[in-house]
Design a protein that fits this description.
Elongation Factor Tu (Ef-tu), domain 3, 3 domains, 14 strands, elongated, disordered N terminus
Length: 319
């Protein structure tokens, strides 16, 4: 019995010694492992990043500035358009009649102005006649050849006609202002008519076109997009572990995900100053959860054959 207890005690002692040795060895190896990891990072010459092909410029929306019905769609999805080109024609409603109405008002004001101008011309002649008559009466009165009553009557008639002339001139000025305002009103109405024409806000390719004849739209209805596919760029995300290693100007090799046979060269043109969460470029749950990323943009140095939004692998040469 004592011999058996002694054997058990000895086994426990040996197991404790082995555990202590194993712990000591483990603690000794940790610094060496950390040092080895740092050395590996220092030897890294390339950094991998996931990205996608995007337009160098933002999308331009196809939308109306006024509620209306679509009368005619002049383009198809995939068409190349230039800035200012008419894409969609809307029903104008009463807008053309409004322009005719405003033009009629303008013609009426211009006719009134013409009459007022003739009245002013006749009034000036009449004033001059009455003034001459008064001057004659005044001279005759100074020579006792005319009565004071006649002279004062001639003076009163002259001054009254001057007041009438001043009134006509003020009325004419007011009508001139009304004429200018009417021109502005016509221009405003014409501008409203142009709102029934949807033009391309930039040159590019028509995409996601949803407009169709008879469709009722508002100013918030998105009818499509225009994208400039010339000289696209790559938007990519670099793991935060290598975020400080990526610099503007570094060379990059880009290839479509799953294909390495048609690599494209490029260089980094932008690095975000902040770290952010991974985007939908990372399709699996594990990819999007573990670390943050630094967003970068890459300018392609050769002709691009990849479609917009194509997912690509990027190899950045950091040394």
């Amino acid at each position: 019995m004592q011999l058996e207890m002694k054997k058990i005690t000895n086994r426990l002692t040996i197991m404790m010694v082995i555990a202590m040795i194993a712990g000591a060895c483990s603690s000794d190896k940790k610094p060496k492992a950390t040092q080895s990891s740092d050395q590996i990072l220092k030897q890294v010459s390339e950094v991998k990043a996931i990205g996608k092909i995007i337009p160098a410029e933002d999308w331009a929306l196809i939308a109306s500035t006024t509620p209306a019905l679509i009368k005619e769609v002049l383009v198809k999805e995939g068409d190349s358009v230039t800035k200012g080109q008419i894409l969609i024609q809307l029903e104008q409603g009463n807008a053309p009649l409004d322009i005719k109405q405003e033009l009629a008002k303008l013609n009426s004001i211009k006719a009134q102005n013409a009459i007022s101008l003739e009245d002013i011309h006749r009034g000036k002649l009449h004033v001059q006649e009455l003034q001459d008559k008064y001057e004659t009466s005044k001279q005759l009165f100074s020579k006792n050849a005319e009565t004071r009553e006649v002279m004062e009557t001639d003076y009163s008639n002259w001054r009254q006609e001057e007041f009438i002339l001043e009134g006509l001139q003020k009325k004419y000025k007011a009508q001139q202002i009304a004429e200018k305002e009417q021109y502005l009103q016509i221009q405003k109405t014409k501008n409203l008519v142009t709102d029934f024409t949807i033009e391309a806000r930039k040159s590019g390719i028509v995409m996601d076109l949803t407009a169709h004849v008879g469709q009722s739209i508002s100013s918030t209805t998105e009818l499509g997009k225009i994208v400039n596919v010339v000289e696209p760029i790559v938007e990519a995300e670099v793991d935060e572990l290598f975020a400080q290693d990526v610099k503007v100007g570094q060379l990059v090799t880009i290839s479509q995900v799953g294909r390495k046979d048609k690599a494209i060269e490029g260089h980094v043109i932008y690095t975000s100053p902040i770290l952010s969460n991974k985007s939908i470029l990372h399709e699996t749950a594990n990819e999007g959860e573990d670390r943050r990323v630094r967003k970068i943009k890459i300018q392609l140095s050769t002709n691009n054959e990849l479609a917009i939004n194509a997912k690509v692998d990027c190899t950045i040469k950091i040394k």
